[in-house]
Amino acid sequence: METANRLYEALSGAQASEVDAEEPGNWLRHAASLSLTKSADGLFDPKLVLSWLLTALAVPSVYVGLLVPIREAGALLPQLFTAPHIHAMARRKWAWAGAAAVQGAMLVVILLVALTMEGAAPGLAICAALAVLALARSVASVSYKDVLGKTVGQARRGAATGFAASAGAAVVIIFALILMVAPVERMTIVLGALTLAALAFLGAAVIFAGLREAATPEEADTAWRAALGQMRLLWREPGLGRFVIARGLLVATALAPPYLVLLAAEAGNRAFERLGALVLASAVASLMSSYVWGRLADRSSRRVLIYAGLAGAAALILALALRAAGLAGTVWALPLALFALMIAYHGVRQGRSTYLVDMAPEDKRLPYTAVANTAIGLLLLGAGVFGALASLAGAAVTIALFAAMAAAGAAVAAALPEAEG
User: Fold this and answer.
1) Computed over its alpha carbons, how large is the radius of gyration of the chain?
2) Taking each helix axis from N to C terminus, what angle separates 395-414 and 275-324, rounded to the nearest 10 degrees?
3) Which residues are within 8 A (CB) of 276 and not within 5 positions of it... i.e. 6 or more apart?
4) pLDDT tens per residue, range 38-67
5) Is the alpha carbon torsion for 117, 118, 120, 122 positive or negative?
6) Strand ranges, E, within 248-369
7) Closest C-alpha among 56, 398, 77 to residue 256
8) What CATH class is the domain 1-221?
9) Could you tell me the pTM of the whole model?
10) Distance between CA atoms of 126 and 325, rounded to whole angstroms?
11) Between the CA of residue 205 and those of 46, 97, 201, 209, what are the distances in Å?
12) Any idea where the domains of the chain sit in the sequence?
């Protein structure tokens, strides 16, 4: 207990003697379990790692194009239906722990598929497993903030999630460096990363289940019916509708990375083996840009959406220009384009979340969020299927379409009113 208290004080900046006796242990469990899941997310990242895996398995490109929309939309759409049932649970830690265990189990399935299947079958099986994983992720997303609020004091929550984010980023950078310098086949390293990610999710489930959470039973309601009915806000509230259109077009920054992996494969084995450089570029872009975008969003989240959309379009055009110049096979070309694209992606994430919170009236913030997430989930699926079909014409064609979407998203964002001030 004394060791746990000292560790809690060192990491959280709080004094164990000034908080509830159970908080230090709960805080450490939050930090540990969330660090494991964030590390796992980076080790199997659908945008890069799973896309590389499917490409290496010679799976048709249509399945590669479906990975990101399945993951992203699957984590958004089910929330309308799962939230009421989770809120009816007396101890919601079991929802999060169960969801983490399911995610770990699905990664085991993906690992077994990669080891045993050939042809188009791995694409279908991995996409199906990823869909189940995304559903579990939506359960974890709905339950986590509630459990955190019940078990850790307000002034110490950010330290727990911030520590986990830093730990996850460090693991991803180490993973990228191993991919770049280890004298081992990339497939072996990727399969090992999937194994570690599965174990991390399972370990997180065990750790989180040990939280001391007070029972707070609530009756299940039909909130999801009300949320579905609120979809009419999209046309009754023009500002919300325009925002959803802009955000929907800007999903191009999230959907495009797998096609850079495909572009690398088309450029030849030398470029395709640069997975480590791609993962490193993505991780460094996240570390470098998130804080800056956040500061800019506090001044004008609308401008962040505009700049991020233009940056995303420019990054994708850069990738096409490098390909046209015959440079796509070099060690630096596609990682550079991905670095620029991921900076834009994090700008879109920061801008969209800040704009929605700032533009929504306080009494409509929850329905605005529910409506926006549902609409974007549907748009992600539609854009993902569209991109996957377009990939049949080649990765370059798909990247050009996503560049046009990002530029159009910036144009729509320019027509939005300012949400700050």
Assistant:
1) 21
2) 90
3) 176, 177, 178, 179, 180, 181, 186
4) 999 999 999 999 999 999 999 998 899 899
5) positive
6) none
7) 398
8) mainly alpha
9) 0.85
10) 35
11) 21, 4, 6, 6
12) 1-221, 226-421
End-to-end CA distance of the chain: 48
Q: What does the block give as tokens for 144?
A: 């986590």
pLDDT digits (tens, 9 = 90+) for 122-162: 999 999 999 999 999 988 887 887 787 777 776 676 677 77
Q: Where are the alpha helices (DSSP H) in 325-364?
A: 333-359
- CB-based contact 38:57 (threshold 8 Å): no
List, in sequence order, the alpha helices (H) in 182-274: 186-209, 223-229, 233-236, 238-250, 252-255, 257-267, 269-272
Backbone angles phi, psi at 418, to 5 degrees: -65, 140
**Same-fold call for 1-221 versus 226-421:** yes
Superfamily of domain covering 226-421: MFS general substrate transporter like domains (1.20.1250.20)
Distance CA 378, CA 404 (A): 20
